[in-house]
Specification:
By secondary structure, the chain is mostly helical. It has helices at residues 3-6, 9-22, 26-37, 42-62, 69-78, 83-88. The chain has one domain (3-88). The protein has 6 helices and no strands. Helix 2 (9-22) crosses helix 4 (42-62), helix 3 (26-37) runs antiparallel to helix 4 (42-62) and helix 4 (42-62) runs antiparallel to helix 5.
């Protein structure tokens, strides 16, 4: 799987929708609710949440690392800010 496939918006949104349907991790549902309550549309909230998911998908698939729920939850908690993106520049 290519990196651009891993970070493809549609793929990330599909994974997020599955996480929401499963209510796992719970932080995903909580983050969506928080972002919606602070004025973000559902679509915008999911796009923001995809920024938190992308590094985890890349780490698991490309770097064969274990899914880091703690880091993912920390990134979700920071939304709508995305300081980890600045670290990659």
């Amino acid at each position: 799987m290519q990196e651009n496939e891993l970070t493809d918006q549609a793929t990330l949104i599909e994974v997020l929708e599955n996480q929401l349907a499963d209510n796992y991790p719970k932080e995903v549902t909580a983050t969506l609710m928080r972002l919606r309550m602070t004025g973000h549309s559902r679509e915008d909230a999911l796009e923001l949440m995809a920024y938190a998911l992308a590094p985890e998908m890349f780490a698991v698939v490309e770097q064969q690392q274990s899914f880091n729920l703690e880091r993912y939850a920390a990134h979700l908690a920071l939304l709508p800010e995305t300081p980890w993106l600045d670290d990659e520049a």
